[in-house]
């Protein structure tokens, strides 16, 4: 008996519940997609629980993006359902403004995620017809396991959950600073340095531009090809223009027109080492998920030679990089702007709806609903506008079942009351 008391004493969590049954869905991730799904469910009157591994909402935006970041698309394509951006926001809100908007969004819809709780596994239990979602809860240095049991599971962990760290020969011997773009804040600390930026997506281009603006000398690695488009064409957002054209014209024709317009505005980008892919920008985005670069000034720095475009990397050695063309560059630091990936396969025990790459197998607009109450929000490769459309569809789907079941439940309760009343009259 004494031993038992000692055991209870040592384990302060002994009386803490280790699992709970959730009335409604579990939403994994409190980024824009998770928040949008939560807000839409709230409107349908469906209760939910949001679980988030970080200690804040929109952790990608708050903790893993650089200071000068602005939305690349006009604000009307980036606002979440049911609450527009404040009217005084500029056409392209800054990162800070976007975060403030998301915070007011969460407050407006009274969304209170469970922070510091990372989902470790989720599996559907066929016998009970419930999802079993296991999490690791961090309280200071203390970690405890918890389990949610629920009928619906909404995956909103994002297309950019983990950073891609390439395995390049000799990188461990390089000796200087090596960071991923998700840890890059500003070029301030690279002043006067020669920096190798690996990758030429939107991150690589913007990090290179920022380094120039802070008197560093960036060399940007372009190992294959890239579509660079102007952010605006003759005063109109390129994205908006493409969306309008897509209403009337086939995708291949819109792609051709976009490339002609890009050439008129930017000229031939190939002569600066930026080879264009053979597939058009929209088709490439749809089929491979590769986002075109929307230029916001890097191209000008490439033309002027402030950003040095270099081919792929052969290997690193101490303080140096050797390129595939045999050229060797002395460098001080490396920024890996090598992209991101989904982390769904690492925790979701399911192989029918989600593919090995962590995206739903079915393409937009089909990839939001799986079987047995499984949903995906924010995996459309269409940024924030895709996340919003997923959220509305999911909430409507769950809301319909929820209301129907509640109606049935009420009917049954009234019938039982009536039976009780009529019985008590005898
Ligand atoms: C630098 C950068 C700039 C971008 N700019 C734009 C833009 O201008 N316009 C646009 O439309 N898109 C942009 N994007 C794309 C961006 O992914 C979306 O805008 C948006 O953040 C997607 O929201 P999300 O909620 O789907 O994913 P995220 O914002 O990534 O949120 C997912 C959340 O899930 C949490 N999570 C992950 N795994 C777990 C787990 N196992 N357990 C619990 N929680 C977990 C994460 O901590 C995170 O908070 C940008 C992306 C990057 C990297
Ligand atoms: N303001 C904005 O809106 C903004 C800003 C930044 C990012 N974003 C978004 O965030 C998402 C991620 O963008 P991102 O630029 O971080 O990633 P990304 O678009 O996936 O680009 C990754 C880049 O890294 C290169 N790369 C990967 N491994 C490499 C290696 N071993 N050697 C050389 N190059 C390598 C890729 O080359 P290959 O093409 O040859 O594979 C590609 O150029 C995108 O959706 C993007 O639009 C938006």
UniProtKB/TrEMBL annotation:
Listed cofactors: FAD
Protein family: Belongs to the FMO family.
Involved pathway(s): Plant hormone metabolism; auxin biosynthesis
Protein name per UniProt: Flavin-containing monooxygenase
Keyword NADP: yes
InterPro entries: Auxin_biosynth/cation_transpt, FAD/NAD-bd_sf, Flavin_mOase-like
Pfam family, one: FMO-like
EC number: 1.-.-.-
Catalysed reaction equations from the record: indole-3-pyruvate + NADPH + O2 + H(+) = (indol-3-yl)acetate + CO2 + NADP(+) + H2O
Keywords: Auxin biosynthesis, FAD, Flavoprotein, Monooxygenase, NADP, Oxidoreductase
Keyword Cell wall biogenesis/degradation: no
